[in-house]
# Entry
Amino acid sequence: MKIATVLGARPQFIKAAPVSRAFQTYRADHQDRPVREVIIHTGQHYDDEMSAVFFREMSIPEPHYHLGVASGSHGRQTGQMLQRIEEVLLHEKPDGVLVYGDTNSTLAGALAAAKLNIPLAHVEAGLRSFNRLMPEEINRVLVDHVSSLLLCPSQVAIDHLRTEGITAGVHLVGDVMADALSLFSALADSCSDIHERLGLVKGAYLLATVHRAENTDDPERLASILSAFGRLDEPIVLPLHPRTKKVIDSLKLTVPRQVRVIKPVGYLDMIALEKSSRMILTDSGGIQKEAYWLGVPCVTLRDETEWVETIESGWNQLVGAEADKIVRAIRSFARPESRPGLYGDGRAAERIVDLCIQSHPST
Ligand code: UD1
Ligand code: UDP
# Structure
């Protein structure tokens, strides 16, 4: 049996790492039932620090196909991916296609599979922000409606699907990012020297990331976030996404003195930075969850989140991009006493692989 995995953006490499590993384990344990994973990299992210570093650090198998689509408008990027993925699928004839999350690579992979009537499995199905202005929300909704296996990280995600009339093929598997964190946490402890390299005192800095379209395409929001950072007393480490760097450079926005801008870092350095930060300020989806799992308070620079359970727990606060609100939230954050387990037990990848294989009993 053959599964084609379509990926292309940073968080997808991190999500795919434990699943690829689980495919390899399955293969080793079931030699009577050979399973092959064919990895198709769309090329959406292409800088070494946005792509190759994750394959190296997380031992993800080298992609069988590099489609080299790179950056572009939504239509152009998604269209080129769709065309090139279709060619690969026609050639490889996989029994199923596996996609992750909500990027343009996810949508292109899903459409290519659906049009060829190849069963589609969607990891992170059912998430909703209910903000259709977000490109990711459009991608998620469309992908879920053409998927035959909907692999959900939470009961809330399952409930969203039910509301949209999707009940068949829906499974609660947990979150693969929890698997990734538990697989690589010890390695980050032993391998990362990022604190020494940056001269950072553990526990005495904030970690920030900003890359969402809503914050980078609106110069007022981005300027407001930067001005909030400028009103804080502690150093702020900002591994800067290339999208945000481009906007800051082109608009010549002022980056406050206490903000330490660095290039995007690999996953091991990122975990190390997260673990020892006093607080995380982010608009990333994945980082909100990592903050929660690591017990680091998080202030989310968005108006809504898909990860509502982290807000309900008190460990994450939604503040948007208004400077006063950001500063107030950081200064007054009360660390909750308890941190209930969220998004599974770190064994989502195993379940995903089992479900992908079980859904093709005849192959
Ligand atoms: C994409 C996803 C977003 C996800 C994010 C993860 C979509 C619509 N958005 O956003 O959901 O949270 O990835 O990081 O798919 N660039 C580089 N080098 C790279 C990659 C990008 O310089 O390796 C620059 C280019 O100028 C590009 C811009 O970043 O135009 C945006 O990249 P793109 O992949 O279109 O969207 P992201 O903002 O990365
Ligand atoms: N990440 C990383 N290096 C960085 C920034 C983020 O390894 O410089 C990791 C982070 O730990 C998380 C994932 O990338 O696992 C989140 O990806 P991103 O914020 O790009 O996308 P989102 O989750 O918002 O879609």
User: Anything to note?
Assistant: The longest strand covers residues 2-7. The chain has 16 helices and 13 strands.
